[in-house]
Design a protein that fits this description.
The complex is a heterodimer. Chain A contains 11 helices and 13 strands. Chain A is of the alpha/beta class. The chains are: A alpha/beta, B mainly beta.
């Protein structure tokens, strides 16, 4: 399938390109960047030297393709989506512009009225573990936010098994690496500022809150922190238990949700040094490692989820969704197991 | 077949013999086969820090 990546010079776009170049069913024909138009891909993504001779073109020069990945900043894809959809191909939007079903949430969380609310009904929220059937054949896929998908994967088994009190707010404590801020993150991402940081950059009001609430039905109270790693998200979710429970019941809930999922692993090891999910072992892989802990003294269930924010949190999940939509094997192009040590 | 005492996963002890130790595929807990008829497993004892002393 002829494939175009709009916004290919960012970190997510670079990961999409890396994955698409090694996908046997995709042929990348155009990559766009207004900032780097005319420059070779290898100058921006040095890991792709000798892997492609592509040169960036301006966004406006992108032609209709069988598959179009949109990796531009939030609010940039809203206006042009009808034009991209007109080609009839698959469009995977990695921005936030088509994730929320309720148009009223866009002014609240993104500060703008959505110009095409009819597309919000049409888009499929791209969590394969929840919406696999809807993804089959879908032409507009809204790829989730990185903290959102991590938190949703952690919490949904507890919601489905009714093991937590859904009437009480669930606290989501998220930590993300610097690449989540994008390639143009500004002075806050400069090495002297970022290295070693544990910075609460959104103690309240993080935009991914809306997605997690939409997909779990819970009231979410999120605090997000920037940490010193380059990749990775760890979401630690604290929920009030619905009643007495135990480890076995939690195991059964997570097993029921994920035993057959190709990219979700349950990590709850009583021994060893890797007892709980840790994004460090997921760099470059599309796995989400989920786990849990029980705090009977406080009546608390802790749900954990680790991902590589650029993979299961962005490009890898987008390709997984496309594989489903287009009828390819779901794991195609996503077989890399990650690095250890990393 | 029996169940892991830690995570309740089904564990297949196949042709194992009593005393054999194996990891649960789901949670990684090391389990010991206590008996084979019927099959009985429990968490394998951990060696104390002064083992071999």
């Amino acid at each position: 399938m002829k494939t175009a990546i709009v916004g290919a010079s960012g970190y997510v776009g670079g990961e999409l390109l890396r994955l698409a170049l090694q996908h046997p069913d995709l042929e990348v024909v155009q990559v766009s960047s207004d900032s780097y138009a005319g420059q070779a891909v290898g100058r921006v993504h040095p890991n792709l030297r000798k892997r492609t001779e592509l040169v960036f073109v301006p966004h406006e020069k992108v032609e209709p393709a069988d598959v179009t990945f949109i990796a531009v900043p939030h609010r940039s894809a809203m206006g042009r989506m009808p034009e991209w959809l007109a080609s009839g191909g698959f469009v995977v939007d990695l921005s936030a512009d088509h994730r929320l079903k309720d148009p009223a949430k866009y002014p609240e969380f993104y500060g703008v009225e959505h110009p095409h609310p009819e597309l919000l009904r049409r888009s499929v929220y791209g969590v394969p573990e929840l919406h696999r059937d809807a993804l089959r054949g879908a032409r507009l896929i809204a790829n989730p936010g990185c903290i959102a998908i991590a938190s949703i994967l952690a919490l949904r088994p507890l919601v489905d098994a009714q093991l937590i009190d859904a009437k009480r707010p669930v606290i989501v404590d998220a930590k993300s690496g610097s690449s989540a801020g994008g390639a143009d993150a500004g002075p806050a991402a400069a090495h002297p500022e970022r290295s070693g940081a544990v910075r609460p950059y959104a103690p309240v009001g993080h935009r991914h809150t809306a997605e997690i609430e939409q997909e779990t039905g819970l009231r979410i109270a999120m605090s997000a922190h920037a940490v010193g790693s380059v990749r990775g998200v760890l979401s630690t979710c604290h929920a009030a238990g619905a009643g007495p429970t135990d480890d076995k019941q939690l195991w059964r809930a997570y097993r029921a949700a994920y035993a057959n999922e190709p990219f979700v692993r349950i990590v709850h090891d009583p021994d060893g040094i890797h007892r709980a999910p840790d994004p460090k072992v997921l760099y470059g892989s599309n796995y989400a490692d989920v786990g849990f802990a029980l705090d009977p003294r406080a009546g608390r269930v802790v749900a954990l989820s680790a991902i590589d924010n650029l993979m299961k949190g962005a490009a890898g999940n987008a390709l997984q969704c496309l594989n489903i939509a287009a009828g390819f094997p779901e794991t195609r192009g996503l077989e890399f197991a990650g690095l250890h040590p990393a | 077949m029996t169940n892991c005492p830690e995570c309740d996963a089904q564990v297949d002890c196949g042709a194992m013999i009593a005393g054999e130790i194996f990891p649960c595929r789901d949670c990684g807990t090391e389990l010991e086969v206590l008996a084979t008829a019927p099959i009985t497993v429990e968490r394998a004892p951990k060696e104390a820090e002064d083992w071999g002393e």
